[in-house]
Protein 1
Amino acid sequence: MSTPKPNPPRATRRDLAVAFACGATVALMVGASFAAVPFYNWFCRTTGYGGTTQVAKSAPKQVIAGRTITVYFDSNVAAGLPWRFEPERRTIDVKLGEVVTVYYKVTNEAARVTAGQAGYNVSPPTVGRYFEKINCFCFTQQKFKAGETRDMAVVFYVDPKLADDSEQDGTTYITLSYTFYPLHVPEQPVADSTTPEKSGHI
């Protein structure tokens, strides 16, 4: 006849419960940290928080000729990226709902291939929800050959709904600011210059 095993001490059960709770808490925090970035990006795109602009798929159906906004184009290059980056013009006057295309000129001043990607926002931050981009170079990584120059387009409009927002009654000026940040360019493998020996008989 076997002797029944004694129940684990109460302290042991308590330690196991505490360890399980700690593990669950850590897992929850890790999961939340991964979810925070996409949620924050979604929140910014939806609300325009922090001057995040919106992404439009087509032009608006309405143009308000009686309201004009001056848009100032700001350009910056982060340390470590040997590029010259400047807009074709610094300011432009646009009507609400008017689709506008402007160009930035980018030149790689290095004697090697370099790559970068642009971040952007608008100010004042509250107008981000009304600044709609149809096309923009900031959505893709840009790789330039040594000395290469490109003209890069931005297509946008200021949403006519801005006129219905009483908080924007005094808004006459918007700054669109871009900053290019460096990206790592993987080195190209060097081809083997040796000629393999022929095998077999003729």
Protein 2
Amino acid sequence: MILEADSVMVRYRTARAVKNTPDFEALSGVSFSVTSGELVAVVGPNGSGKTTLLRTLLGLEPPSAGRVLLNGLEIGSRSRRDLAECIGALPQREEPAFPLTVREVLLMGRWARLGPVASVTAADEAAMAAALMRCDVSGFEHRKIETLSGGEWQRVRMARALAAMPQLLLLDEPTAALDVGHEMALFELLRQLAIEGLGVMVITHDLNLAARFADRMVLLHRGAVVAQGEPASVMQAELLSGVFEWPVTVHDVAGSLQVVASRKRD
């Protein structure tokens, strides 16, 4: 087991000016794990706590209760460099503060191994080249990131996460801005990375891709886990209709469960 969330709670204080208002509970007793060689998809409606969960797993948001363990040690006890060696992360939003080339972005993924003054080695170059190829952005090294399309930037960020050669990938909406071909290519890549032994956790709104590729799904609703397990145990029409507050049906399409949202009739 690489990563374990054990009864994690995250509570935000409300504004002091609002009297007699309880603190907002963004996560409530969330427990699940990610092991080597496993692809876990975290799904749920907007505001269900998915991004807060990612921040907590990365040690950026300390839990109000419970704990997060990385290779058996509490996440808060690990240095940022140690975490960067173990985890390749892709946040949902990222606005670079400086004009950078794609190569410079990928070097940021190698910083934990390079250190502050070390020279770039052949191993670093090989890791970056392999990451660029796997994310279909080979030849982009000298392009300025401001010249990239939204989908190209997303694929470069994914390459940066892979360039770190981590044990674990934590990804928040990695298919945002990608066309259908690159969506499929990315999930095929995640599946292959899991086969190669990485632990992968992906937050996604695409239930159908999650069901098609994930070993396990974790369904969040209002900060709590309402279902988790193999896709068949989560892809239940009644459950999903209640959580997403919209009628859906679930169908077996070529051996994979797929959700279809119904039209509401007058």
